[in-house]
Amino acid sequence: MAANTEPSETLDALTGTGTVLVEGVSELWTLDAERRVLRDAAVLIEGDVIAWAGPRSEAPAADRRVDLEGRAVLPGWVDSHSHMVFDGDRSAEFQARMAGESYSAGGIGVTTGATREASDERLAALLASRVEEARRGGTTCMETKTGYGLNVEDEARSARIAAEHMDEVTFLGAHLVPAEYKNRADEYVDLVTGEMLQAVLASGGERLRWADVFCEEGAFTPEQSRRVLEACRAAGLTPRLHGNQLGETGGVALALELGAASVDHINYLSSEDIEGLGASGRAFRANGGVDGAPPAADPAGIDWPTVATILPACDLSTRAPLAPARELADAGATLAIASNCNPGTSYTSSMNFCVGTAVLQMRLTLEEALEAATLGGATALRRTDVGRIVPGARADLHVLNAPAAIHLAYRPGMPMTAATIRKGVRVA
Ligand SMILES: N=CN[C@@H](CCC(=O)O)C(=O)O
Ligand SMILES: [Zn+2]
């Protein structure tokens, strides 16, 4: 029993110094090795890490206590795919799509024009406000990509600004062949793998760990994508891919061949693609998965899978066939759910919406969807420190405005986030 008998403080006083016991948790989704969901639970935060999690009746003493009065608590969302460094408005394109137009990669060029025009200060302020929005929806760890600069200077600038605000940064110089390289895609690939890569490496710092390619009709062929990802890998970046969004275009096979960290979108899959992603996930679990790794594990020592990342909001916003999440889960794939927040195909960072949609429309169970949006995202980013509430993990908590996590799907569109704690500090 907690030795501290001072009255509990309310949610508004969550941020403090020393140890803080968060109690009165109706459902605690630990995402620990047993995937325990504890009732009437408590979590002890010490600085920026989780020190303990368990039944309230066994809670250790703490400097302060905060009573959540029967709210559910999850790990903060880990959003492993977004494109948040941009300026410009594409709502007219979206409206045209709702009137029957189909999505094409060309819209990326519109955002690129506006992004190149924006000052550094404006781009940084826009990004900061988007991060704040995401935190208000329970997101505590977030990746973002370059990809709306598409020249040396603007890609390097995007990487620098992203690194100032995001947990993880991905180089996506191969997002679209820009207009000035029309019909010269291979020359553009030379630029991406040469001068642009070097400039981005120099400005992205240690948060720049990934390289991505839009491997699709109208963007880059599998062969061009392979060239980009191999060059980036030789420079120390780990590959990930946008694949099989608009057709069966070879992205999944390439991701598996390269041992990419993830392949994202995956709307059009062959049975071989599903089996390949399933085999990757099954092998990961057979080796202990993330569960075998303590939060401080060296990620380089883990045999990571190619994660199958589904983007429910993007599928809805482009009226695409939903990614076959159920079939992937049944095949044993390691799934992640991400927002893909971007101005063209998915202008939302609401992971609450994405998780609700995965349950309502994509036939994942609540447990599967929650795992995909927390531990799955962490696995896609090859991190052991986020996505679960276990001792030693980063103190990232998502407090729901509800007694049970099923409310995310049961009450779609409602403001379900009561508080977001990141690194032990209340950020929303
Ligand atoms: N598909 C490629 N890239 C983004 C869309 C970018 C855009 O249309 O601006 C995506 O992930 O959906
Ligand atoms: Zn994307």
Describe what this molecule looks like in 3D.
- This protein starts with 18 loop residues before the first strand and ends with a strand.
- It is of the alpha/beta class and 428 residues long.
- It folds into 2 domains: 102 residues, Urease, subunit C, domain 1 (Roll), CATH 2.30.40.10; 304 residues, Metal-dependent hydrolases (TIM Barrel, Alpha-Beta Barrel), CATH 3.20.20.
- The chain is globular, with a radius of gyration of 21 Å.
- The longest helix has 20 residues.
- The chain has an 8-stranded parallel β-sheet with strand order 5-6-7-8-9-10-11-12.
- The mean pLDDT is 96.
- It has 14 helices and 15 strands.
- The structure holds N-(iminomethyl)-L-glutamic acid and zinc ion.
- Zinc ion binds next to loops.
Q: What is the CATH superfamily label of the largest domain?
A: Metal-dependent hydrolases
CATH architecture of the largest domain: Alpha-Beta Barrel
**SSE string, helix = H, strand = E?**
EEEEEHHHEHEHEHEHEHEHHEHHHEHEE
Helix content: 25-40%
Runs with pLDDT <50, length 5+?
none
Overall CATH class of the largest domain: Alpha Beta
Classify the secondary structure makeup into a structural class. Answer: alpha/beta
Strand content: 15-25%
Tell me the Rg in angstroms: 21 Å
| CATH topology assignment of the largest domain | TIM Barrel
Morphology call? globular
